[in-house]
Design brief:
Layout: E1 12-14, E2 20-22, H1 26-46, H2 54-71, H3 80-84, H4 91-106, H5 120-143, H6 150-173
Antiparallel strand pairs: 1-2
Helix pairs in contact: 1-2, 1-5, 4-6, 5-6
Length: about 180
């Protein structure tokens, strides 16, 4: 199987479960931004110390694949069986909140805005946070015209908070103070 198909050369792309849309369609933008976030999290995982938060970040990447699969599917009933593997649990949002609550016990209270800076791990987490916010905006935009599970917006909103908290925690554990504004 070749990686190139030439089917997108006219500016359209195929959706999961059938149909084609322009590559600048809100659905494509939404799952594309989620895909970009997933790639940025791969960069975060590679940043030293690579083991820091790695199991959590890998599980988030798997969640993002699930979200992307759903977003790429305008008619979930047509591919219901295939999407069963891509189920996302509402418990994930609670897990993010628990991780943030635990991190807050270790961090000094936030009293001002924090510049996205510090160690390579923290800086890459800050970058992931901003890409996550863009993905959230794209998913919200798609939700204005298509059915999008409410959980996806909540998940991305909480994920950006988690990534911010993990950036602060990465700096703290490296002995680097937050750079405040």
């Amino acid at each position: 199987m070749k990686i190139y198909t030439r089917t997108g050369d006219t500016g359209e792309t195929a959706l999961f479960g059938g149909g084609r849309v322009p590559k600048d369609h809100p659905r494509v933008a939404a799952y594309g931004d989620v895909d970009e976030l997933n790639s940025v999290l791969g960069v975060v995982r590679a940043a030293e110390p690579a083991a820091l938060f790695d199991p959590l970040l890998e599980s988030i990447q798997r969640d993002l694949f699930s979200i992307g699969g759903h977003l790429a599917t305008p008619d979930p009933e047509r591919v219901k069986k295939a999407l069963e593997k891509a189920a996302l649990s509402p418990g994930r949002v609670s897990e993010f909140e628990r991780v943030m609550d635990e991190a807050e016990q270790e961090l000094s209270p936030l009293r001002s805005f924090v510049l996205p800076a510090g160690t390579p791990k923290a800086s890459s987490l800050h970058l992931a946070r901003t890409v996550c916010r863009r993905a959230e905006r794209s998913v919200v935009h798609l939700a204005h015209s298509s059915d999008v599970p409410e959980l996806f917006v909540i998940y991305l909103n909480r994920l950006s908070d988690l990534l911010f908290t993990l950036a602060r925690l990465a700096n703290h554990r490296a002995g680097s103070a937050d750079v405040t504004w």
